[in-house]
Amino acid sequence: MAMRSHSEFEQYAFHNRATGDYAWAFWTMIICNIVLPQLLWFKKLRRSITFSVCVAFGSMCGDVVRALCDYRYLTAPRLSAVVVDDVQSYVGGYRDIL
What we know:
Elements: H1 8-19, H2 23-38, H3 43-46, H4 49-75, H5 80-92
């Protein structure tokens, strides 16, 4: 959505996630949660119990990385004005905060 958005903030946030300090976490989540499950479209891979277990563990690893990124965000020091802005944004609806 951020790639097709006309919001400069969303485009910057997406670019920063994909190429910034935590790009490893972004690409790990993409590979584990999007690419690996797509391989299940192939019948030979889908019928392999070993591969299915590997996909399940890969998906869990992607979720662990997402939790680490959430923890990193929640424990980061920031100005109180930024915290108030984040809290107010939840009142109006969901906003991706990573």
